[in-house]
């Protein structure tokens, strides 16, 4: 971490952050942690937090939860949250699979966002990609009926894989015929800007949870 990030960690982590490994057994009591009852949205992999902080600020009606394994990124997100005076953002350090399996109740999330996850472009590494059938099945089970799973990537092959995997999950329904129009409310990330410079097209997918 930078000096500023380390100071932010020391200053704000006790209030805004928790480690997944240290959570009490059972579902996370988000209402108590946020100090209010509100729809809970989970973002997986916020990176350095530029987009996440803007999205949280734009949706004060949501309890916005971000999980990542990258401490400097979460520290930078805390700096942004502090500067923007956000009160509806909380951070978790650790494995999203463990979080969802052990600490997020079924049918409890209003939405899940996965923006520009690591594409693992080499074919031999595709098995490491986050968006796989088993993981999507887990995500779908944690969404409330009508809740949305929104993914975005600038890698064409990964976009195709996402579309195939999400379409194949019985608990999910595509809100659009194929790719979703790029939402105006989703900020342009540094990854998306770089993709445009390199001639890659970003794709959005928005699926919703159906009733069992």
Descriptive report:
- This protein is of the alpha/beta class and 212 residues long.
- The chain has one domain: Rossmann fold (3-Layer(aba) Sandwich).
- The chain has 8 helices and 8 strands.
- The protein has an 8-stranded mixed beta sheet, with helices on both faces.
- Helix 4 (71-83) links the parallel strand 3 and strand 4.
- Helix 1 (3-16) crosses helix 4.
Brief rundown of the structure:
This protein has 212 residues and is α/β, with parallel strands linked by helices. It has eight helices and eight strands. Strands 1-4-3-2-5-6-8-7 form an eight-stranded mixed beta sheet, sandwiched between helices.
Fill in the keyword field for this structure.
212 residues; alpha/beta; Rossmann fold; eight-stranded mixed β-sheet; 8 helices; 22% strand
Main β sheet profile = 8 strands, mixed
Strand order of the largest sheet: 1-4-3-2-5-6-8-7
Rg value: 17 Å
Name of the CATH first level: Alpha Beta
- Helical content stands at 25-40%
Overall morphology: globular
Number of domains: 1
CATH topology: the name is: Rossmann fold
Total helical segments:
8
Sequence-ordered SSE layout with sheet pairings:
Elements: H1 3-16, E1 17-19, H2 30-34, E2 40-44, H3 50-58, E3 63-68, H4 71-83, E4 89-93, H5 96-103, E5 109-115, H6 133-142, E6 143-153, H7 156-167, E7 172-174, H8 190-197, E8 203-209
Parallel strand pairs: 1-4, 2-3, 2-5, 3-4, 5-6
Antiparallel strand pairs: 6-8, 7-8
Helix pairs in contact: 1-4
